[in-house]
Amino acid sequence: MAHVLLFPSVLGVRQGITDLADALTDAGHDVTTLDPFDGETFDDYPSGMAATKAIGDEALQARALAAAQGVDAPFVAIGFSVGAATAEWVAAQLPEAARGVVMVGGGIPMRFIEATWPSGVPGQVHVTSEDPFHEEDKQFDPMVDEYLQDDVEQAGGEYTFVEYQGSGHSFTDPSLRAEYQPAEAQIFTRRMLEFVAAVG
């Protein structure tokens, strides 16, 4: 059974992350949650982005890789928002251990993180149809989703793109009232349990 690694957004380890960790644990999976801010959380994205910038990408990647290496077992990486890119990067660094990657709020083509998608590893993207951050990514490059799909499929992995109605970027987090979408969050959690069980 694969170990699950959770990589939060710039808002930190909020309820949406802990709820998913609890659901996975209840299903019998071991879960490790990377906490880049040592327990601190943020209520808005600019504050979280500033804290992330203060730590630096290299330091965040080093912590994430150390956490994955410390598991010493096959893993599924699930990342939220910016954490999705971290999940992709960690899987690329440890291709023999990676069993699946889930990117919530949108993924990023591998060229932008200077890495290669691990061979045969499935990838899933989960976004809402009007997610402002995902829309911003597509304005930057309309082919962003297609590039990521090519990365996964050219490496022999199965690519799945799941779009939910609504506009919540962190739609799985009950503590973010403006974004939380309970029905979609429930469906997402069910899909995560199914995915981890299938690839693990």
TrEMBL record:
<dbReference type="Pfam" id="PF01738">
    <property type="entry name" value="DLH"/>
</dbReference>
<protein>
    <submittedName>
        <fullName>Dienelactone hydrolase</fullName>
    </submittedName>
</protein>
<dbReference type="GO" id="GO:0016787">
    <property type="term" value="F:hydrolase activity"/>
</dbReference>
<keyword id="KW-0378">Hydrolase</keyword>
<dbReference type="InterPro" id="IPR051049">
    <property type="entry name" value="Dienelactone_hydrolase-like"/>
</dbReference>
<dbReference type="InterPro" id="IPR002925">
    <property type="entry name" value="Dienelactn_hydro"/>
</dbReference>
<feature type="domain" description="Dienelactone hydrolase">
    <location>
        <begin position="4"/>
        <end position="198"/>
    </location>
</feature>
<dbReference type="InterPro" id="IPR029058">
    <property type="entry name" value="AB_hydrolase_fold"/>
</dbReference>
